[in-house]
Write a structure and sequence with these properties.
Blueprint: H1 3-18, H2 20-24, H3 35-69, H4 71-95, H5 108-111, H6 116-154, H7 156-185, H8 188-199, H9 201-213, H10 219-247, H11 251-271
Length: 272
């Protein structure tokens, strides 16, 4: 491997990963008391993750594995990978402590601080959600870092295009991590830090690709991982983000956020 090519590939991957910081910076411009914004943001995050999972990641996995293994066998492997991802997400969900019953009825006084014990539980739940989302985004970013690095090593212009596309995707992912953590802790620095940290999985993927995977790069493995990550993202969206979006605001706000998140991802995919 040429040194200059490796440096270029790593810098492009770093650029793509750190773009989560752009989305996480949104926490610096929001008011913690604005629960309607929280509801919209959580719905938006769910829309982003659901759309990119079904339209891009699963679509590419079906296509790639179909070409390599045949349409029927490739489809079977993609579906299995997707549901294995959901199983992994379920296990992660079980391992993270659950502070309260998400289906328990809530009163508006809890959001206004009149019920301090329950208010603390709600903040813990938001922190848990932010942590889960950060883990999912990091897992998602790791193979993206591998893909960006490998693409750049094969063709620099292709690598630039891939890095820009991933950077655009990572901006709303940064929002998904930072907003619940900010509302849970009240700390804009913590919200930015955890979101920023999840983006560092991207250059970590580049390092792994450079040290271990370059000689064994396999389109099938990338497609299987992508399908699995799609399953993880869908589970987190349906089990954590959407229920919380409805809980912290009006029902319609969560749906508006969901649709807008899907629209943003759809437009970004068309543009790129």
């Amino acid at each position: 491997m040429e040194f200059n090519a490796v440096v270029t590939a790593f810098l492009l991957t770093l650029f793509a990963g750190l773009s989560t910081g752009i989305g996480s910076a949104l926490a610096f411009f929001t008011k913690r008391t604005n629960t309607k914004f929280l509801s919209l943001s959580l719905g938006f995050s769910a829309g982003v993750m659901i759309y990119i999972s079904f339209v891009e990641m699963l679509g590419e996995s079906f296509s790639t594995l179909g070409e390599i293994m045949g349409e029927r066998y490739g489809s079977i492997i993609t579906v299995i990978s997707f549901f294995v991802g959901i199983l992994i997400a379920l296990i992660i969900d079980r391992l993270v402590p659950n502070y309260e019953n998400p289906h328990e009825p809530r009163m508006i006084e809890e959001m206004e601080g009149k019920c301090c014990g329950r208010m603390l539980h709600r903040r813990r739940k938001l922190m848990r959600m932010g942590f889960l989302t950060a883990v999912v985004v990091a897992i998602h970013n790791l193979p993206e870092g591998v893909v960006t690095f490998m693409s750049t090593m094969q063709d620099t212009s292709m690598g630039v295009a891939v890095a820009i596309a991933i950077a655009i995707h990572n901006i709303p992912e940064g929002i998904a991590v930072s907003v619940p953590i900010y509302y849970a802790t009240g700390s804009k620095k913590k919200a930015f830090f955890y979101s920023f940290l999840s983006g560092l999985a991207e250059p970590l993927g580049a390092v792994i690709a450079c040290l271990f995977l370059y000689k064994f790069y396999n389109d099938s493995a990338v497609a299987i991982i992508s399908a699995g990550v799609a399953g993880i993202m869908v589970f987190i969206s349906l089990d954590e983000l959407l229920p919380a979006a409805r809980e912290y605001g009006e029902h319609h706000l969560s749906i508006y956020g969901l649709v807008f998140g899907m629209l943003v991802m759809a437009v970004s995919l068309i543009i790129i």
